[in-house]
Amino acid sequence: MSTTDAEATTSQPNDTTDDLTSLRHSRRRFGDKVFKGISSGSGTLILVILAAVATFLVGLSIPALTADAEDLQYGEFWSYALPFAFGTVWAATLAMVFAVPVAIGIALFISHYAPRRLAQGLGYIIDLLAAVPSVVFGLWGINTLAPMMRPLYVWLADNFGELPVLGWFFTGPVSGTGRTILTAALVLAVMVLPIITAISREVFLQTPRLHEEASLALGATRWEMIRQAVLPFGTPGIVSACMLGLGRALGETMAIAMVLSPAAVIHFELLTSSNPNTIAGNIALAFPEAFGLGINQLIATGLVLFIITLAVNMTARWVLSRRKEFSGAN
Question: Which GO terms describe its molecular function (predicted)?
Fold first, then answer.
């Protein structure tokens, strides 16, 4: 065999290997392009949907915002919308006051105290609780919780209604049905509890083991270890969980519409039969009877709710951005 034939025979395997390598690289590049396109398209789609919702709300709200008060079905817009905006924020705030400490406590118990089998069972129960429809919570609230809580409301009014500060919240007369803003807030708290608990549990389980062991090695008790290592690491996750729960509480409709005995008022009394309604609950109750500019007026209150929710989420992002320097993995 000549030298030229030997070189040609030797180069054939190398050429085949180069072709296979080039083919693999081209496939990888194609996969990267497809994945990048899907990811970019999904992110863009979210922005398009948000812009479409905002455009819809603004476009249909303008007639109600620019019309004269005598032409509107429900009177002057801001006088009509402010009580419902107050009721939305007030009910959601009360719900978070009740839900957040309990949710964090349950998450810590599941992640750091409960035996493994018990923790798994509780985790399943929490996840199932998040899947219960809101109408079921509403039925439970109006038929079970409200009558059960009324004796407690009477006791609170009798013992705290005359105090200088607490009297603002517990003054009477107490509702005869128990359908108060406090009952609605308790129902909302139960509804947002599984959301906050599930996310906080997963965040606590991601705490670096070295941080926990270092704290315990220095003589810390389990609670001190949680306070020094787990909670600082999980604070951004807790804030995110609370904001998701708050978003659920702000936008809840059926449970509020079923439980609350509503009125267009602004006050902090928790036990009376006259309670500030929420924007979502008012839209659900009033929309079937609305006509003309009344429909635009209700949609405009939906725009107010949209702005409130957007402001809450922007505040959450600002809080999280202040802690971006902390990294539990370092």
Answer: phosphate transmembrane transporter activity
Backbone phi, psi, residue 275, to 5°: -125, 140
Closest to 271 in 3D by CA, of 183, 148, 190 = 183
Phi, psi values for residue 292, rounded to 5°: 60, -130
The letter for the amino acid at 134 is S
Pure H helices in 131-180: 134-140, 146-160, 167-170
Q: pLDDT tens digits, residue range 23-54?
A: 566 666 777 778 888 888 888 898 899 899 99
C-alpha dihedral, 24 to 28 to 31 to 37, nearest 10°: -140
Long-range contacts made by residues 48-55, C-beta under 8 angstroms, separation at least 24? 53/306, 54/306
Q: Which helix (H) or strand (E) holds 239?
A: helix 231-251
pTM to 2 decimal places: 0.82
Amino acid at 133: P
Count Cα neighbours of 66 within 13 Å in the Cβ-side half-sphere. Answer: 6
Report the distance separating Cα 283 and Cα 303, nearest Å: 12
Length of the chain: 330
